[in-house]
Design goal:
Elements (H helix, E strand, L loop, with lengths): L1 E10 L2 E11 L15 H8 L7 E6 L21
Antiparallel strand pairs: 1-2, 1-3
Length: 81
């Protein structure tokens, strides 16, 4: 279980996420759906622990691991498999 409590994120003066509160289940899939620029990737970065510049609280179940697969493979662009 992952709980999000009052997650807020701003880029300069633009509010990207405002008061996001929800509980994600232990098993199964969760889909985030919305138009481009609505904050889906930002929320995933917060849940995965890649973004620490936000207010609110992310609570993980004990020993819970979070994984993320990026849509664009831009982490190490000079390497290939």
């Amino acid at each position: 279980m992952i709980q999000l409590k009052s997650i807020n994120k701003r880029y300069l003066h633009e509010h990207v996420l405002e008061n996001i509160t929800c509980t994600l289940p232990d098993t199964g899939f969760v889909s985030l759906v919305g138009p481009s620029g609505c904050g889906k990737s930002t929320l995933l970065h917060i849940i995965a622990g890649l973004d620490h510049d936000y207010s609110g609280e992310v609570i993980y179940k004990k020993n819970k691991k979070v994984s993320i697969i990026f849509q664009d493979f831009h982490l190490i662009p000079w390497l290939s498999i």
